[in-house]
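Sample intake sheet
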Amino acid sequence: MNSFQITMEQVGMLVDGAGVAVIVLGIIGATVRAIVSAPPPGLDRYMAYRQNLGRAILLGLELLVAGDIIKTVAVAPTLQNMAVLGAIVVIRTFLSFSLELEINGRWPWQQKAPAR
Protein backbone atom coordinates (compact mmCIF):
# COMPACT_ATOMS: atom_id res chain seq x y z
CA MET A 1 0.00 0.00 0.00
CA ASN A 2 1.20 3.49 -0.76
CA SER A 3 1.07 6.35 1.74
CA PHE A 4 -2.14 7.80 0.26
CA GLN A 5 -3.99 4.51 0.73
CA ILE A 6 -2.67 4.13 4.27
CA THR A 7 -3.73 7.69 5.09
CA MET A 8 -7.21 7.16 3.61
CA GLU A 9 -7.59 3.88 5.52
CA GLN A 10 -6.74 5.73 8.73
CA VAL A 11 -9.12 8.59 7.88
CA GLY A 12 -11.89 6.08 7.17
CA MET A 13 -11.24 4.33 10.48
CA LEU A 14 -11.26 7.69 12.26
CA VAL A 15 -14.64 8.57 10.72
CA ASP A 16 -15.94 5.09 11.66
CA GLY A 17 -14.73 5.66 15.21
CA ALA A 18 -16.50 9.02 15.28
CA GLY A 19 -19.70 7.31 14.15
CA VAL A 20 -19.49 4.74 16.93
CA ALA A 21 -18.65 7.46 19.46
CA VAL A 22 -21.66 9.54 18.36
CA ILE A 23 -23.96 6.54 18.82
CA VAL A 24 -22.54 5.62 22.25
CA LEU A 25 -22.51 9.21 23.51
CA GLY A 26 -25.99 9.72 22.06
CA ILE A 27 -27.30 6.71 23.97
CA ILE A 28 -25.75 8.01 27.18
CA GLY A 29 -26.99 11.57 26.57
CA ALA A 30 -30.52 10.48 25.65
CA THR A 31 -30.70 8.24 28.72
CA VAL A 32 -29.46 10.95 31.08
CA ARG A 33 -31.81 13.49 29.50
CA ALA A 34 -34.75 11.09 29.86
CA ILE A 35 -33.99 10.50 33.54
CA VAL A 36 -33.10 14.05 34.58
CA SER A 37 -35.14 16.51 32.53
CA ALA A 38 -38.81 16.90 31.77
CA PRO A 39 -39.92 15.94 28.26
CA PRO A 40 -40.76 18.70 25.76
CA PRO A 41 -44.38 19.85 25.67
CA GLY A 42 -46.61 17.46 23.77
CA LEU A 43 -44.36 14.41 24.23
CA ASP A 44 -44.20 11.85 26.97
CA ARG A 45 -40.85 10.82 28.40
CA TYR A 46 -40.70 7.59 26.37
CA MET A 47 -41.31 9.32 23.02
CA ALA A 48 -38.79 12.05 23.81
CA TYR A 49 -36.25 9.36 24.69
CA ARG A 50 -36.93 7.48 21.44
CA GLN A 51 -36.54 10.65 19.40
CA ASN A 52 -33.25 11.61 21.04
CA LEU A 53 -31.95 8.07 20.70
CA GLY A 54 -33.04 7.90 17.06
CA ARG A 55 -31.27 11.16 16.25
CA ALA A 56 -28.01 9.88 17.72
CA ILE A 57 -28.25 6.60 15.82
CA LEU A 58 -29.12 8.44 12.60
CA LEU A 59 -26.10 10.73 12.88
CA GLY A 60 -23.83 7.82 13.78
CA LEU A 61 -25.06 5.83 10.77
CA GLU A 62 -24.29 8.76 8.48
CA LEU A 63 -20.72 8.88 9.78
CA LEU A 64 -20.34 5.10 9.41
CA VAL A 65 -21.49 5.30 5.78
CA ALA A 66 -19.01 8.13 5.14
CA GLY A 67 -16.20 6.04 6.64
CA ASP A 68 -17.11 3.06 4.48
CA ILE A 69 -17.18 5.22 1.36
CA ILE A 70 -13.77 6.70 2.13
CA LYS A 71 -12.21 3.32 2.80
CA THR A 72 -13.74 1.64 -0.24
CA VAL A 73 -13.26 4.34 -2.86
CA ALA A 74 -9.82 5.56 -1.78
CA VAL A 75 -8.24 2.32 -0.54
CA ALA A 76 -9.56 -0.67 -2.49
CA PRO A 77 -11.93 0.29 -5.33
CA THR A 78 -12.47 -3.23 -6.66
CA LEU A 79 -15.76 -4.31 -8.19
CA GLN A 80 -16.44 -6.67 -5.28
CA ASN A 81 -15.73 -3.96 -2.69
CA MET A 82 -17.95 -1.50 -4.57
CA ALA A 83 -20.79 -4.06 -4.61
CA VAL A 84 -20.42 -4.63 -0.86
CA LEU A 85 -20.35 -0.86 -0.30
CA GLY A 86 -23.49 -0.48 -2.41
CA ALA A 87 -25.29 -3.10 -0.30
CA ILE A 88 -24.14 -1.44 2.92
CA VAL A 89 -25.30 1.99 1.71
CA VAL A 90 -28.71 0.61 0.67
CA ILE A 91 -29.22 -1.10 4.03
CA ARG A 92 -28.10 1.95 6.02
CA THR A 93 -30.22 4.26 3.86
CA PHE A 94 -33.25 2.09 4.59
CA LEU A 95 -32.40 2.25 8.30
CA SER A 96 -32.00 6.03 8.09
CA PHE A 97 -35.39 6.44 6.42
CA SER A 98 -36.99 4.15 8.99
CA LEU A 99 -35.45 6.11 11.84
CA GLU A 100 -36.54 9.40 10.27
CA LEU A 101 -40.09 8.07 10.11
CA GLU A 102 -39.90 6.98 13.75
CA ILE A 103 -38.46 10.30 14.94
CA ASN A 104 -40.63 12.76 13.02
CA GLY A 105 -43.64 10.66 12.05
CA ARG A 106 -43.15 11.43 8.34
CA TRP A 107 -40.84 10.48 5.49
CA PRO A 108 -37.85 12.81 4.88
CA TRP A 109 -39.30 14.08 1.60
CA GLN A 110 -42.68 14.99 3.10
CA GLN A 111 -43.32 18.53 4.21
CA LYS A 112 -44.04 19.33 7.83
CA ALA A 113 -47.67 19.73 8.72
CA PRO A 114 -48.62 23.40 9.13
CA ALA A 115 -48.72 24.64 12.73
CA ARG A 116 -52.19 25.06 14.13
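Comment: Helices lie at 3-36, 45-75, 79-104. The chain is about 80% helix and 0% strand.
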